[in-house]
Specification:
The chain has 223 residues and is α/β, with parallel strands linked by helices. The protein has helices at residues 14-20, 32-44, 77-88, 106-109, 123-136, 161-165, 180-197; strands spanning 24-28, 48-52, 93-97, 115-118, 140-146, 149-155, 206-211, 216-221. Strand 7 and strand 8 form a beta hairpin. The chain starts with 13 loop residues before the first helix and ends with a strand.
């Protein structure tokens, strides 16, 4: 096994590391959370990553998106995904799709994935993704940020967790995102995803929230 993974032990067993290297994970959205999710999965050693995002970098991405750089403004985010993956861990197989993940593309992109990471930016898109994951019987790890706050949860097929988190089709009024909030959110999601992928017990039906301004955490059982 590559020496790059030595510091993963004993927090992970060697058997768990080998299991991670056999897994395929889809990242829906390559912006604030998505860029950090990519980084974490590459360094962790997840074997195959599918990254999906239709957008290009804009100047207001620079305050928080790990993959964004001044010289990349106007270029597709998926191009930065490919470049970063080659720099960090070329052994990981990375597929990129510069398309919107919706009812039409999800049935094509989801099959074969062991987990899906939600790094989208609207309630409508998240619910579409959740329904698509349920239809494909794939667990989805939800994550969202607003200002100083981050939240994450594991949605298993059929649990309707996203409908409980967002009972109405409305988005957060606070559209601000600070540089550190998506990094924390992605870390929460990556930890939950790792537990799920290696077969450890993971708490489902629970929304984990962090308020970084007040330094408060909360676990809300929803179902």
């Amino acid at each position: 096994m590559d020496d790059r993974y030595l510091r993963n032990f004993p927090s992970l067993t060697r058997e768990e590391q080998m299991l991670l290297m056999s897994k395929r994970v889809l990242i829906a959205g390559c912006g604030g959370q998505g860029g950090y999710l990519l980084e974490l999965l590459l360094r962790l050693g997840v074997g195959s990553i599918v990254a999906v995002d239709p957008d290009q970098f804009e100047s207001d991405n620079l305050n928080r998106q790990l993959l964004s750089q001044v010289h990349l403004l106007g270029t597709p985010k998926t191009e930065a995904v490919k470049a970063r993956a080659a720099q960090v861990n070329p052994d990981v197989k990375v597929e990129t799709y510069a398309v919107r993940l919706d009812e039409h593309t999800a049935p094509i992109l989801l099959p074969g994935c062991d987990a899906v990471l939600d790094a989208l930016d609207s309630t409508k898109s998240r619910k579409i993704l959740a329904r698509s994951c349920a239809n494909a019987k794939i667990p989805m790890i939800h994550g969202a940020t607003a200002g100083w706050q981050a939240q994450a949860a594991v949605s298993m097929p059929g649990d309707n967790l996203l409908d409980l988190i967002y009972p109405e089709q409305t988005d957060h009024i606070d559209n601000s995102v600070l540089s550190f909030t998506p990094a924390l959110c992605a870390s929460l999601q990556a930890a939950l995803c790792t537990q799920l992928l290696v077969g450890r017990r993971v708490q489902t039906g629970t929304l984990f929230t962090v308020d970084l301004l007040r330094m408060k955490t909360e676990s809300i059982h929803l179902g």
